[in-house]
Sequence to fold (323 residues):
Amino acid sequence: MPTASAAVAAGEGAGAPGSGVRPERVAATAVTVAATDIGRGHEEPPAGDSAVRSGARPERVGATAVTVAATGIGRGHDFGVGVGVGVGVGVGAGAVPAAAVWARPTASVDLSTYLVTDAGLSGPRGVLFVIAEAVAGGVTAVQIRDKTASTREVYELVVAATRLTRGRCLLFVDDRVDVFLAARSGGVHVDGVHVGQSDLPAAAVRRLIGADALLGLTANTPAHLAAAHSLPVGTVDYFGVGVIRPTLTKANHPEPLGVDGFAALAASTPIACVAIGGIRLDDTAPLKAAGAAGLAVVSAICAADDVRAATREFVDAWAGARA
Fold:
């Protein structure tokens, strides 16, 4: 690839014998991402929470590379070889107070190109490789989603991912409020949580994660929207609305909405709506015109031969489409 290098070695069969770790969940031996490429265009942001909401962090990244190694953090844990991280990142003026980093945004948040991870679709390259390449391609938000991983595996993956996303895009955890809280308690920068209709109630999640975190909620019916509207203003920051068309990445999904069904729901709420479910590149313009605040993409990015190029296509298509 022209800018960032990715060394993929021993990505197959990487789990320790009997560990239960699927090979596709373990990242390759090393993924090196040039910070001069991923961070290009991110100037030091002004103080204030609007800069934080955009995903920019106050300190300037000064290193030449972020190296993600698949052998470190998991060492000694019960599941054998896990996902480890070595970070070659230098910071400028020292630590930033948690309140400055995690202040709840009050302006707009960029959810336009929103990657939802999938270990199976990522294959032997690993989820971290996909995240690194998506970040290099300009993704604006990443959601760590794995319905079958252990709590420890999800936690370690989130810790690893934040080294790639912080200061470059938003990072969400799907469902796992416990993982979000554990990560934050350890000083790991995670922006928010996304929950579904069968997960903890949004009001309870908001009380747990605090006022400074972002909260997304899956909603695909007028009743879902009405229930969310009955909550205090600010409980939910955005809706994930779908599915748009049939998809294999979500079992037992509801009847597809299509663009028209999405448009009807988006028009009935003041809360930002991100379209999800079978999203293709050619959906960008019609969904943006239908009121989408962004596109949550799984297969079209995770399974792409060139993840960075696929991400960039979505970013460019969104930029060129009319609302």
Summary: Confidence is low (pLDDT under 50) at residues 1-107.
